[in-house]
Design goal:
By secondary structure, the chain is mainly alpha-helical. The chain is 83% helix and 0% strand. The protein is built from six helices and no strands. The protein has helices at residues 2-13, 15-25, 29-49, 59-77, 79-93, 97-114.
């Protein structure tokens, strides 16, 4: 929740800066490999400790774990596919993505910190 809130606010504050970061990431092969390892590690931890498939809001965390694992694998095995997919999604959603990220962060913060 905190990560989504922070990124959402920062991207709203300076959209062009974060759009440049996304483009620059794919130009650096070492960074791509490191992101792959990092994403796989964090995603594995999410899956290991929270692989809960219930029909409620907690399944969002499980889905993020599995989608993150797939993304980490793509970072390492086939970064060009990930880059093409990211460019297609990013171009279409670049104006609403910061706000979507912020709203998603608010939803996760509500469920994570206030919902019982």
């Amino acid at each position: 929740a905190i990560m989504f809130l922070t990124i959402g606010i920062a991207a709203i504050k300076d959209k062009l800066y974060y759009q440049k970061i996304v483009k620059d990431t794919f130009k650096n092969k070492s960074l791509m490999l490191m992101f792959g390892f990092f994403t796989i590690t964090i995603s594995y931890l999410i899956i290991h400790f929270h692989n809960i498939w219930q029909y409620n809001w907690t399944v969002i965390i499980t889905l993020f774990g599995w989608l993150g694992l797939l993304k980490g694998i793509l970072f390492i095995i086939h970064p060009k596919i990930l880059e093409r997919l990211s460019n297609k999604v990013f171009i279409r959603l670049r104006n609403i993505m910061p706000y979507t990220t912020l709203v998603f962060g608010l939803i996760l913060a509500y469920f994570g910190f206030f919902y019982s």
